Amino acid sequence: MTDLNVDIINFKINLDNYGSLVPIESYEDVPFDIKRIYYIYDVEKGVRRGFHAHKKLEQVLICVRGSVKILTKNLSEEKIFELNDPTKGLYIGPITWREMYDFSDDAVLLVLASEYYNVNDYIRNYDNFIKEIKGC
Ligand code: TYD
Known about the structure:
Elements: E1 6-10, E2 14-16, E3 19-21, E4 36-41, E5 49-54, E6 59-65, E7 68-73, E8 78-83, E9 88-92, E10 97-101, E11 108-113, E12 122-123, H1 126-135
Antiparallel strand pairs: 1-9, 2-3, 4-11, 5-10, 5-12, 6-9, 6-11, 7-8, 7-10
The structure holds thymidine-5'-diphosphate.
């Protein structure tokens, strides 16, 4: 059985009297070429998002403000992360189920992605996700 393909990345921070700055470069700070970014915010209490895996896409999730919980799982393992630090990113590799929940009112979740948006890369049905893993 494969290990869960997730990891916390600690970004370098430039901290001075003028504030904090976190630079992120492709291959330097995240293990892929960043082709797309998007961010999620204004998520109402009780809302749970995600409920999918990706066939090829790699992503790094960074909660740049506030906090959010991320559930990740495959067939054999499940891990829950609380993101609440703009200097930490959660890498999520292909064929990993994810759900995002418990967004704080002020949460802004920034996502760096290795590919352009492609609806065909999504696995939205949990049974199909399990089948995809078993076929790997
Ligand atoms: P979706 O991936 O379902 O969000 P989540 O997994 O966080 O619940 O995306 C929500 C909507 O936004 C959906 O209509 C597709 C659209 N979307 C884009 O147009 N481009 C993108 O890069 C992403 C991630 C989503």
